[in-house]
Amino acid sequence: MPYILAIESSCDDTSAAILNNDHLLSNVIASQKVHEQYGGVVPELASRAHQQNIVPVVDAAIRNAGIDKSQIDAVAFTRGPGLLGSLLVGVSFAKSFAQALDVPLIEVNHLQAHVLSHFIKDCRTVDESNKATPEFPFLCLLVSGGHTQIILLHSHFEMEILGQTIDDAAGEAIDKAAKIMDLGYPGGPIIDRLAKEGNPDAFTFATPHIPGYDYSFSGIKTSFLYFLRDRLEEDPDFINKNKADLCASIQKCIMGFLLKKFEKAALNNRVRQVAIAGGVSANSYLRDGIQRIGEKHHWKTFIPTLQFCTDNAAMVGIAGYFKYLLNDFADISLPPYTRS
User: Fold this and answer.
1) How many other CB atoms are there within 10 angstroms of residue 134's CB atom?
2) What is the pTM of this model?
3) Measuring CA to CA, which residue among 291, 261, 264, 254 is closest to residue 276?
4) Domains of the chain (ranges plus CATH)?
5) pLDDT tens across 178-237, in order?
6) 211 within 8 A of 265, measured Cβ to Cβ
7) Residues contacting 153, CB < 8 A, separation 6+
8) How large is the greatest C-alpha to C-alpha distance in the chain, in angstroms?
């Protein structure tokens, strides 16, 4: 029954968690507000904030779990992909901590961790501690600010990428739409909130015809930009007058595009269980959409709780636990990587 300390520092959230087997005992996240004024993550500021946060966050995770650091059996850490400066902070701390305790290191792929978050059993919540987990094979739509992939899982680490974006990620497209409308940062939650007050059929935007299960979102961004340019020439106050409808319409365009290909992939691969993961899986349209598709085809659907959608160490810990069972340990010389 190993106790695993997990560390996540791939972008702008410093997080540490303690798991006992697949049961989550604590999950502490320190977010960085400094980036809001810049409209996006500033890598240098992110790495500096990680240096300030890593020690208190790890200390809080251990204390919240009710254990002593001497009980930790392994240290799991996000090796990549992510921002190099941010990753270096987490990787360096994990190596030092593991050496000090003389316990093994476990390197974790950030994207795999998002997908495996469905296997976390949260001891802090009664309903979550005994929840059902996906059975293999199942299909997962991984959607975040930097990645969009349709993944067929044959086992915990046998992940077959059936389709992915050939340019921008879905989350990036949503954030760009928010930036064009000057809604603030991060744009995704703002668009989701305003969309609830709007008409998703008020406006339509072009979606590309990409073969297979791949995606492209650069054309949608361009379509949205040109649409607003033309309307603003007619009425400079067009965005303010139609803000909710614009948010609802662009959200439907992007999320509907995601779900259409995902449904096709699930049907063609004859899976009976489907899931979503990643930061954009917090989007209400996407969550409702996959639920509707599951009910239509009598599929079992798995939707992460909101706390496990964004970057967090709990998902790193569950991936680390499954690697621990395989004795898949990392050499201390392994460097972080920025891309998969």
Assistant:
1) 19
2) 0.94
3) 291
4) 3-131+308-325 (3.30.420.40), 138-306 (3.30.420.40)
5) 999 999 888 999 999 999 999 999 999 999 999 999 999 999 999 999 999 999 999 999
6) no
7) 115, 134, 136, 137, 138, 139, 140, 159, 160
8) 68
